[in-house]
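Structure in, sequence out. Go:
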């Protein structure tokens, strides 16, 4: 059994991580992370190898957004009854179940590669009618295109801090392809942005590795507005309009 904990990665300058036994080149240590339940963060050595194949050496690492962190994020995302939320790399499923309960979502989905984590998530989500979990690669394009299980999602969340560049690039392509998405939240932003979405807004959310971890929130850009349009531009134009109205009123 192997466990790699994202908490330790974020806390340390080196790439020493919290693992149950030696995995490839990673350092073995068991005492750096106090906030993860070691048993729950586990995945098998076979699962680690399979995840590594498609997401890089660290992609099977584990860490969670906390209850408070998800409350902050869900509020910023304005999650509500019209939303279909998906957690890409849903681990043990806590964020999915909490999102469904706290925000009364239409549906909440999680997709997780590691079968053992997926099975824990399925058990956790059983009582919730609006919750479902898929096992597999969250960046599998076929799931995001018309008719796919994720093709009607409105909000996507990815705790993608430990995903490698290739997996993040594949995930980006899926988000850009999915026309129903109105927002995306990710721990690692995409340098060129997401096509069709505005520049990300940084939100600080509590995680098991930090009290205020930056999460980048992308909102779908209104197709009728020019690409340079942003919340700041809108605010400045409203302020300008108010000044003009004020001057007109004062002059009459
Ligand atoms: C850091 S944990 C996040 C847990 C949870 N989403 C949260 O934020 O609280 C990331 C999860 O992504 C999973 N994962 C890694 N690569 C994946 C892939 N290609 N498809 C689906 N899940 C993947 C890992 O196994 C791990 O459980």
């Amino acid at each position: 059994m192997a466990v790699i904990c994202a908490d330790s990665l974020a806390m340390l300058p080196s790439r020493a991580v919290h693992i149950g036994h030696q995995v490839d080149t990673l350092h073995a240590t068991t005492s750096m992370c106090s906030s993860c339940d070691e048993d729950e963060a586990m995945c098998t050595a076979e699962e680690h190898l399979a995840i590594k194949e498609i997401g890089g050496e660290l992609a099977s690492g584990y860490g969670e957004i906390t209850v408070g962190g998800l409350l902050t994020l869900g509020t910023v995302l304005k999650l509500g009854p019209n939303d279909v939320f998906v957690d890409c790399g849903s681990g043990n499923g806590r964020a999915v179940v909490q999102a469904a309960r706290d925000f009364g979502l239409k549906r909440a989905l999680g997709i997780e590669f590691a079968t053992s984590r997926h099975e824990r998530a399925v058990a956790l989500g059983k009582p919730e009618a609006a919750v479902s979990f898929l096992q597999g690669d969250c960046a599998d394009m076929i799931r995001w295109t018309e008719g796919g299980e994720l093709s009607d999602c409105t909000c996507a969340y990815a705790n993608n801090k430990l995903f490698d560049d290739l997996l993040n690039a594949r995930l980006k392509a899926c988000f850009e392809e999915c026309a129903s998405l109105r927002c995306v939240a990710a721990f690692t932003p995409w340098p060129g942005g997401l096509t069709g979405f505005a520049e990300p807004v940084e939100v600080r959310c509590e995680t098991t590795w930090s009290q205020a971890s930056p999460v980048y929130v992308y909102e779908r850009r209104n197709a009728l507005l020019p690409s340079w349009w942003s919340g700041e531009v809108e605010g400045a134009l409203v302020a300008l309009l108010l000044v003009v109205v004020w001057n007109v009123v004062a002059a009459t």
